[in-house]
């Protein structure tokens, strides 16, 4: 049996005696089951990384069955294989330590259902003020995908958002971390992340405008012969 503590985007192996923090997520790997233990005070980013970690391990061993359990609802089968103590606390989640890389091609997809019942997906600027309660949004950060669900979002919109996330995973032939975030339950750091991305887009746009202006001022070789 191997026991892992999910810290940001890493799995840190633990040794006995085991202590679980109620704000974190842990993965327990046995011969045939992969248990994902979720503390009652864990954030959405912790849960998403836990699910991602389980899928990464499962890719190496397809025989493993993934079972997700919540603190306080552990089945006897789980309690029979491991003894652990639960303490109050948590470690910084992924969203609390954002490292934005300008070169990445990030984007925000807006998913809405029109009056005819058709679901329309379009790319929009990355700005938190554009998020609407009656729609769904997908933030594509390549290795991380964020699905934001508005409180008045329609079922078709939710389904389409999940479908887009699955398509991106297949296209890239890798396992991105997929965060599902509901309006009003955003984890700490989420809004700051969107703000940083808006600054990034503004900086890139300004840089591209400067390049165009510089290019227009340069004389072409044929202009000297006019």
Automatic annotation (TrEMBL):
<dbReference type="GO" id="GO:0051015">
    <property type="term" value="F:actin filament binding"/>
</dbReference>
<protein>
    <recommendedName>
        <fullName>Gelsolin-like domain-containing protein</fullName>
    </recommendedName>
</protein>
<dbReference type="Pfam" id="PF00626">
    <property type="entry name" value="Gelsolin"/>
</dbReference>
<dbReference type="InterPro" id="IPR007123">
    <property type="entry name" value="Gelsolin-like_dom"/>
</dbReference>
<feature type="domain" description="Gelsolin-like">
    <location>
        <begin position="122"/>
        <end position="191"/>
    </location>
</feature>
<feature type="domain" description="Gelsolin-like">
    <location>
        <begin position="20"/>
        <end position="79"/>
    </location>
</feature>
<keyword id="KW-0677">Repeat</keyword>
<dbReference type="InterPro" id="IPR007122">
    <property type="entry name" value="Villin/Gelsolin"/>
</dbReference>
<dbReference type="InterPro" id="IPR029006">
    <property type="entry name" value="ADF-H/Gelsolin-like_dom_sf"/>
</dbReference>
């Amino acid at each position: 049996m191997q026991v892992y503590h999910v810290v940001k985007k890493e799995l840190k192996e633990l040794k006995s005696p085991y202590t679980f923090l109620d704000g974190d997520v842990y993965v327990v790997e046995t011969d045939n089951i992969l248990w994902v233990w979720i503390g009652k005070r864990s954030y959405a980013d912790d849960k998403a990384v836990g699910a991602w970690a389980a899928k990464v391990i499962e890719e190496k061993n397809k025989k493993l069955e993934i079972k997700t359990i919540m603190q306080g609802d552990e089945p006897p089968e789980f309690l029979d294989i491991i003894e652990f103590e639960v303490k109050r606390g948590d470690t910084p989640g992924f969203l609390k330590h954002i490292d934005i890389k300008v070169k990445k091609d990030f984007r925000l997809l807006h998913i809405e259902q029109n009056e005819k019942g058709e679901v329309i997906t379009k790319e929009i600027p990355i700005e938190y003020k554009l998020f609407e309660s009656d729609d769904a949004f997908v933030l594509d950060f390549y290795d991380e995908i964020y699905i934001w669900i508005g409180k008045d979002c329609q079922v078709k919109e939710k389904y389409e958002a999940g479908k887009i996330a699955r398509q991106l995973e297949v296209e890239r032939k890798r396992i991105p971390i997929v965060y599902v975030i509901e309006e009003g339950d955003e984890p700490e750091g989420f809004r700051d992340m969107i703000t940083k991305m808006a600054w990034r887009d503004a900086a890139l746009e300004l840089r591209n405008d400067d390049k165009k202006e510089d290019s227009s001022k340069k004389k072409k070789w044929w202009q000297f012969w006019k």
